[in-house]
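Help wanted!
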Amino acid sequence: MAIFANKRKPDTELGFGTKNYNGRVRFISSDGQVNVKRTGLSGIENIDIYHWLISTTLTKLFIVIFAGYIVINTLFALVYFWIGAEYFGGLTYTTSTDNFLALFFFSAQTLTTVGYGHIYPASTTTSTIAAIESLLGLLGFALATGVLYGRFSRPKAHLLYSRNVIIAPYMEMTGLMFRVANYKQYELIETEAQVILSIDNKETNRRDFLQLPLERSKINFLTLSWTIVHPIDDKSPVYGLSVQDLIDRDAEIIILIKGINDTQSQSVFSRFSYKAEEMLENVKFKPLSQFADAKGRLNIDVKEIHSVLPVQAVKIS
Amino acid sequence: MAIFANKRKPDTELGFGTKNYNGRVRFISSDGQVNVKRTGLSGIENIDIYHWLISTTLTKLFIVIFAGYIVINTLFALVYFWIGAEYFGGLTYTTSTDNFLALFFFSAQTLTTVGYGHIYPASTTTSTIAAIESLLGLLGFALATGVLYGRFSRPKAHLLYSRNVIIAPYMEMTGLMFRVANYKQYELIETEAQVILSIDNKETNRRDFLQLPLERSKINFLTLSWTIVHPIDDKSPVYGLSVQDLIDRDAEIIILIKGINDTQSQSVFSRFSYKAEEMLENVKFKPLSQFADAKGRLNIDVKEIHSVLPVQAVKIS
Amino acid sequence: MAIFANKRKPDTELGFGTKNYNGRVRFISSDGQVNVKRTGLSGIENIDIYHWLISTTLTKLFIVIFAGYIVINTLFALVYFWIGAEYFGGLTYTTSTDNFLALFFFSAQTLTTVGYGHIYPASTTTSTIAAIESLLGLLGFALATGVLYGRFSRPKAHLLYSRNVIIAPYMEMTGLMFRVANYKQYELIETEAQVILSIDNKETNRRDFLQLPLERSKINFLTLSWTIVHPIDDKSPVYGLSVQDLIDRDAEIIILIKGINDTQSQSVFSRFSYKAEEMLENVKFKPLSQFADAKGRLNIDVKEIHSVLPVQAVKIS
Amino acid sequence: MAIFANKRKPDTELGFGTKNYNGRVRFISSDGQVNVKRTGLSGIENIDIYHWLISTTLTKLFIVIFAGYIVINTLFALVYFWIGAEYFGGLTYTTSTDNFLALFFFSAQTLTTVGYGHIYPASTTTSTIAAIESLLGLLGFALATGVLYGRFSRPKAHLLYSRNVIIAPYMEMTGLMFRVANYKQYELIETEAQVILSIDNKETNRRDFLQLPLERSKINFLTLSWTIVHPIDDKSPVYGLSVQDLIDRDAEIIILIKGINDTQSQSVFSRFSYKAEEMLENVKFKPLSQFADAKGRLNIDVKEIHSVLPVQAVKIS
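Answered by r_m:
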């Protein structure tokens, strides 16, 4: 869908279009990924291998590396075996199975460049294949070095979001608010937040994406925790709507946070979303218990950002 | 040509000068490269080897690595052979050819540090050369690691541009528009576009570079597709010009897009250009078919951004 | 503590909350670290291993690498020994201790891929373990390469701060000032400073964080030294306060400096703080002795930024 | 010297202070380095080893690597020799010199992990030292990989500056101008220039640093060449001064250029300076000869940016 199809506020273009879906949708999934699948190009063109390698889990990465190691060694062992075990020095086995296994391990010793040498290529052909294999081994290892470094050095924000977004008293009125904390020991500086409401527009039967103005949208340091507040005044798009109204309109609160990871001096981005079902009323956030320890160091328990306390629902009679 | 030669709008300086060429030129080639060749310095000073290594095709890179591997091993084999095969342990061949081949493979085993050891340097001279070769091997491999990592981690935008730029109805008037989509699975955020018209000025006989104002020049996310629109109002430089007029003036629509690749948290740049011959009239873009799949994930087929539908040419009688 | 709890100036949010602690606290420790410890998540989730590896001392890093090397080799040696020394070729020792030690060194030769080969795995099981160990060795080494590169290439500011912050004559009035110098040979460009006063508010019994306006907050180059000055006019939060008053209020002067390291073309950040106890009155900074040497190069001794000269205390009678 | 010592324009603070030196000085040396030497800290604290490794010449770097390789191997050979050649397998030489040389090469084979194995450590002590050496070899190689990658990937601008800064006719008046061109094949985008005049102030006997306003200070692309012009109107600090006046005042034109290298998507910085002696009058720049080749590619010869043509000196009678 074309993005320009109807006029919107210039600061709130998420590029999701304005189509209304039959089922309920979630634009930002729980792990911060944008919930879009792009297809249409042939082969691997829609896939970014480097992206996958540096963002998949460590377990999956090691399975891929290990499986690749076995497959490549098997292939080279087959080639060596097909050429003939007699073209190798030090190979004294008498059965085919033993020879094949020995050639498999010779391949592993060549690929990793460990090269013990108790078995060695003794003909031009086998030496040539082994020379190619050791070059491939070095290049593959160069790739692995790059991928592991890319993973490790990838700028990331490690933000914990409160379990719920709440509607709580704020100043003289109410506010829609949630809390975030950095749970790692580095600092996140020059942190900025943007909060967007995605909601069904019952009149146009389209989906609106509306910027929610914040009481404060930027802080220098995210040291303890940050309560991000959208004051619900009469200009707010959620003014006069109950939580049930928001659920009925399949509302989603989309959060974009940008900051600088000061270990790496690089910009990092965090995304999160709450569905209306995760919204609480008649509660307020419990202040984090923070204390200075013997060394004068401030201590916080980041898990406390989830804690809420009940409040008397305010009724204007 | 000096850039200041005549006054232009401060936001539209592409640095191409204002000279008019005899033939037709294309300032941005189809793969987004700026179509300029710079010469004049001696030797390799006009060439950026790192730039070449990280931007050439993988096939060419592997050919260079493989050819270099053969050349270096041949050179070292010649040195070893010239010193004498008798200064190597384990070398039991009787013909020169066999000795040379064995020394070639010994060289490969030294360069890759696989070092089986069935052949080994047995004199001071041959040991010295082998010690140098293994150091060179490590350094060469260090370079290869850097190049492969540089290629993989290089910030890139993967944008698909619609095949044509079209003149289509827009709001109450017409617009010059094209579509872009990110065809990979990562997100491109804070994306900005700039569109510049390069056109022959029949009056001054010079080439003008004119910024085309956009209906929206920045979006937060490039999730689905983005239709970039220049509204053709009476202040537009293309107002009143037909597609044939633009062809006659050798017009080129130059597009500069800047965004942030969120896997790498780095700015990426994309360039593209349409020649007037690639412009279509009396069509409009067909909306992308997008649907939420069973997992609530929005699906799009990026190839659909090329699709256009015919529209009745609007005539004001 | 929620950050929004009371209204503050939008440009001074350090995220420390406004709680007053019983003891004296220091928000920025002497090495520029933010003095906060975050806990609450299970296991290693509060720890950023990469952050630790690239920011710990070189000595600690080498101890970790060396200890890891011994532990891994011991583990593999135990496995090899448990399988049986008789499944290795070249192992001719007669005592268990000698066999274990030989297997420990075989493990080291496999992990580092040096693979002399005088001892080699001679059964399927031992060959398999050795093949896994050499793969692990390569991956571990890939990690070490990444960590060492990450450490070396990490963008850092190397700023020396004057030992004291001083209250000195400035123009026609007084100023709160300190000096910084870059003590390395690269250049720090587009350098910006921000100075924040953290002070107990005796009226609200809370802690205030107040931006101190600077006479100049940005310089193009930090070539020699930079005296950063907060002019103490009647709008300054320290106007009318003595050094003793500041000590009584547990005042801390927090400094945030941002610049671009021009070797790496990357933004770098420096933090520092002075407690009120480190403040001097009735002194002024001694100008740095700078001279052009025979090559026309300006020479400075960065240690001189600490030097102060006594001044007659100005009294308005 | 304190930077705030006298009031200056906020956009022209180079951090050089305002001291006047007896001899003639050059603030930016011909290779763009800031001409400052910083001392005062003990040991290597004033030196940034990584900075040196990635910015020194390739020749010096290879000499350092090669010398280090020889030194480390000699040290380990001495240790091995001191322990005793009899604790090595395969060492069959009879003279001390031959044994020492063989141990030197054994050390090289261990450090590079080539490990042929015709000589191998046969005691616990020698095996331990060899295990340490191979670990050191891997770590040293990891460092070399990082340094070579850091050099290659270091963001750089490759700008050629015209040999002279000239005073030439510009529009209806005159301008101070010079030309720059990117001589590599990548593109430099969003390029900004700043030009600063450093000049002796005869009245205050101090050195002034004055920003020279430019006709255009930013261009989108630096494709062909860029003539940077300071129009000499009656507000210009050089208005009414002859070249000889500028020489008498030891004037230096300091140029700071910032852009984005689009291969690496990173900001790059270039510095240059002209002394008044390098200024030419009564000339103008010869336009670059640029032509479209058979492939429609624009060709320029970057060396032509040096070329000037004589002009009739304009005299107002």
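OP: Thanks! One thing I noticed: Chain C has five helices and 17 strands.
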